[in-house]
Structures are given as C-alpha cells and as structure tokens.
Design goal:
alpha/beta; 7 helices; 11 strands; two-stranded antiparallel sheet; Rossmann fold
C-alpha cells in the first residue's frame, strides 16, 4: 500500500541532521507496517498528479496556520476534498488535522487559552493516551461528518474520525523527546511562556503512546476499525 506524505512544513534546520524531516519521522513511526511512502513537499508547491496518486494520504504538521494566506493552501484543500470524495483514506496530524477540518467545513482558530507543549494526555476510545503536543491553533468547530474521538480539557476536538474517509489528531505521535526538546529551544523561546517550556522540558522522558497511535493509523489506512 502506497502512502503519500504531504509535507506542509519544514523542521528547524538545526534539528534535521539528527531527527530528519517530518516525512522521515512518519516513515520511522510506521516502519513496521509494510507501507511504501512517496513524499510531496506541498509547502514548496510540490503536489501529486491527483488524489489517486497514492492509496492513502498523510498530512504533516507545520509552523504555519491553516488560515494564513499561502498559495499552496487552496490547492491542498482541493486535494483533500477530492480524496474525500473518492474514499481515499487520509490521516492528518496537527496542521493536517486542522486543514482537513477546514477543507471540509470546520473552523480553526488561534486558541486564546495558549499552548500545549510536550507530553500531554488525551481521552481516546482505547483509554488515556500520552502523546507529545506542540500547538496553539485548534479546531473550534468540527465539520458535519466528523465525530470527536479524542479530547482533553484543553483541546476538546483533539481527534476526529470521518467514517472510513479520514482520521485526524492534534498531537504528534511522530515527535520524540529529542525533537521536542529541540523545538523548545529553536522555536519555543519568545513564543511560548518560558515557564511552560521549562515545565515541558522537565516532563520529557515519560512513556509515550506513540506506537499505539501508529497502529491506529495503520489500521485506518487498511480500511479497518482504528481502535482495538
């Protein structure tokens, strides 16, 4: 099964040599699932020939907001709607979660309550899951087809399931401690309160449920119920 990775952002250059780019992180996360991967850097206007160029699509995170005026966002939304209409499964993470919601009629905003950073617990159908978070933007209004399947007190629409068509999550199962620690130092300072960043750094090293979420993604791509 070929999964097309739609890269919507670039990792900090200071971290790439150690952690790879976002598509590399997802390929590592799903390495045991037998998928083939093609990457399209849509943030640099590299798009596939169409929605049928892959058997499934995975949309990455980004430092950009889905509501920002970038020339690559409208064609990405068109691609999402085309894949959705063709029943080609999509997984979206963080920005990917938000852009799928926006493309299908939802609403995304910069959350007045601030940021979620580092190991964060979510209530999911399989029970509580701890996954790294890195976001301020949130889906504040879900599309009509979306069912909320993950939340916490800070982010009430943290995971959305659109039947067999899309499964999207706000947290980052592809992020490890090294990358999050690097984000804190390269992109967090001066943006997120230092007290929150310092607290998140202290929480690194906790057991994460990233592998469980990867299994959810794999089951979904194969047309199975994502939650065991």
């Amino acid at each position: 099964m070929k999964i097309g990775i739609l890269q919507t952002g670039l990792a900090p250059t200071e971290l790439v040599s150690e952690t790879g780019e976002y598509p590399d992180m997802f390929a590592k996360l799903l390495a045991d699932e037998g998928f083939e991967f093609d990457t399209y850097s849509v943030v640099q206007n590299q798009f596939p020939s169409g929605a049928d160029a892959a058997d499934g699509w995975l949309i990455t995170g980004s430092k950009h907001g889905v509501y920002e005026d970038h020339d690559w966002i409208p064609p990405l939304e068109d691609l999402i709607r085309d894949a959705y209409a063709r029943d080609i499964p999509m997984v979206g993470v963080c920005f990917g979660h938000q852009i799928i919601a926006q493309a299908l009629g939802g609403k995304v905003e910069k959350f007045a309550g601030g940021w979620a950073v580092g190991p964060t617990e979510y209530d999911m159908p399989e029970g509580k899951m701890r996954i790294h978070a890195w976001h301020q933007d949130q889906v504040v209004q879900t599309p009509p087809e979306a069912k909320v399947v993950g939340r916490n007190d800070f982010c009430e629409n943290a995971a959305l399931l659109y039947g067999h068509k899309a499964y999207t999550v706000q947290p980052h199962p592809e992020f490890g401690d090294i990358f999050v620690g690097g984000l804190i130092d390269t992109r967090g300072r001066g943006v997120v309160p230092d007290t929150q960043l310092d607290a998140a750094k202290q929480e690194l090293g906790q057991t994460l449920d990233s592998a469980r979420m990867a299994k959810q993604f794999a089951r979904f791509f194969r047309g199975e119920e994502p939650f065991s």
